[in-house]
Amino acid sequence: MKTNIYLKLIIACIVGYSIISCEDFLEIEAPKDKVVREDVFNNEATTLSALAGIYNQLFLSEFSNGAEFSVTFLAGLSADNIKNISTTNFARMEFEQNEISPANSNNLFIWSSAYNMIYLANSFLEGLEESEALTDSFKTPLEGEGRFIRAFTYFYLVNLYGEIPLIVSTDYAENQSSTRNSQQEIYDQIIADLQISIEKLPEAYENGERTKANRYGAMALLSRVYLYLEDWEKAEQLSSQVISQSSTYELLEDFDEIFLANSKEAIWQISPIGQGGMVSHTNDGFLFLIDPLRSYFAKTKLNENLISIFGDIDIRLSKWVGFNESKNAFFASKYKIWNSMEFPIIEYSMVLRLAEQYLIRAEARAQQGNISGAVEDLNRIRTRAGIELEIDPDITKEELLDKIIEERRKELFSEWGHRWLDLKRTHRAQEVLGENPLWEATDVLYPIPAAERIKNPSLTQNPGY
After folding, report:
1. Per-residue pLDDT tens for 356-385?
2. What residues have CB less than 8 Å from 123, skipping those under 6 apart?
3. Bond from prior residue into 344 cis (ω within 30 degrees of 0)
4. Which phi-psi region, left, alpha or beta, contains residue 417 (left: φ > 0; alpha: ψ -120 to 50)?
5. Nearest Cα to Cα of residue 464 among 91, 76, 70, 98
6. Against a cut of 0.90, is the pTM above it?
7. How far apart are CA 414 and CA 435, in angstroms?
8. Nearest to 244 by CA among 220, 226, 224
9. Helix (H, G, I), strand (E, B) or coil at 9
């Protein structure tokens, strides 16, 4: 009975911070859960329950849950793949128009929920380190999971905001006045966390569930990190290691199976079970699908410019794109379930999948002058879609890279803001978005939320805001 009380307290103390979506953990009152935490980390069962609570929080946390305040939606609006159906929601329209105010509440949701997730990871890692009751063999993979979640969260923060505070502890006195660290310092921490995760995480998925990080999930994320840092050799090496695990991962030929729970294309997914068993659909499905009988719920549609780049024979156009007549709108249909309370859960929210690894390796190979290897990887994705790249023997590296970026747009649309991040990192944002009369070069970074700067005057603002 006493253990159950402690477990409820630790979940309340740790996860409770993330439920307060508008409150940055840098400004929360000094944690008072140290005694409770010591009791929880004296027991393997309660330690695992605390970790499960953190994974569940990924489905609830605004930045990661795939809903209307998520990176998937808001960063998607910032690029040229998706648009708002209604133009009266000014907070969302600011993302579409690339004119985000520092006072924008949706921008605050991303920032605060991401830092709350970092607080959870830091608290969990500290609990493991301080525990003398848990064995090293038990703690090792759990440390890998905690570091993976922290690295994953920092990846989005640094790419959306640039220089940000680097917080790796729960020390309130230290955190409340933190200044911004350089992007290189943030990336150094991400790389260090992922390298340790690769060392400590198991290869296999627990009970076949791909909702927990494993070694190849950490490799997949690190390969993306190196791609963004233009370390082409390391990006290729890591993506190759993931791709080589053919007994665990494969490109599925049936497009209706790719986004199912625990599909063989999935490297890491987030389960709707984090809602507490109340619903069994993904937030992505509820957001992007337009239900024919309830189209009044629809918030977003696909940009017709995106539809135009798919050829008629591209299977992705028929399998992943729908059309609603009442809204006169194309919509993403990668997920097939709009609303459900039926169990077992059929679809999980996809975070990392094998197709991205082929595209990472294609780009890394092209950058290193391996044109044939890049084309081979690109064709793995295109052939599955019913098309193939006809190779011009005189194709240049730059021409091939353009095709790879276009293929990323077609393959990864409506997933985790990939298009926005691709435009930024490849310096194409001005070219693609520059026709917007409100566009400025400084818009590639979101503003530091005004509410956070009021609470912490040490936070400086990004240029242009």
Report:
1. 999 999 999 999 999 999 999 999 999 999
2. 14, 31, 33, 37, 170
3. yes
4. left
5. 98
6. yes
7. 22
8. 220
9. helix
Given a contact cutoff of 8 angstroms between Cβ atoms, the answer to whether 252 and 358 are in contact is: no
Contacts of the segment 260-266: beta carbons below 8 A, 24+ positions apart: 260/346, 260/347, 260/348, 261/210, 261/344, 261/345, 261/346, 261/347, 261/348, 262/205, 262/208, 262/209, 262/210, 262/348, 265/353, 265/354, 265/355, 266/210, 266/348, 266/350, 266/352, 266/353, 266/354
Q: Is 439 exposed, middle or buried (0-12, 13-18, 19+ CB in 10 A)?
A: middle
Angle between helix 136-161 and helix 418-425 axes, rounded to 10 deg: 70
Polymer length of the chain: 465
Token couple for 361 = 């390796």
Distances (CA, A) of 352 to 98, 216, 222, 235, 331: 27, 10, 11, 15, 22
Residue 10 pLDDT grade (very low, low, confident, very high; cuts 50, 70, 90): low
Which residues make Cβ contacts (< 8 Å) with residue 419, sequence separation at least 6?
76, 79, 80, 81, 408, 409, 412, 413
Angle between helices 71-78 and 418-425 (to 10 degrees): 50
Q: Measuring CA to CA, which residue among 158, 170, 64 is closest to residue 119?
A: 170
**pLDDT grade for 36, boundaries at 50, 70 and 90:** low
pLDDT in tens, 310-334: 989 999 999 999 999 999 999 999 9
137: CB partners within 8 A, 6+ apart: none
- Mark out the alpha helices in 136-182 (DSSP H runs): 136-161, 172-175
d(CA 219, CA 174): 32
Per-residue pLDDT at 28? 38
* CB contact at 8 A, 331 and 289: yes
Can you tell me the mean pLDDT for 273-296? 93
In the chain the domains, ranked by start, together with CATH numbers, are: 1-201+427-465 (1.25.40.390)
Contact 106, 74 (CB under 8 A): yes
Q: Which residues contact 257 (CB under 8 A, 6 or more apart)?
A: 263, 265
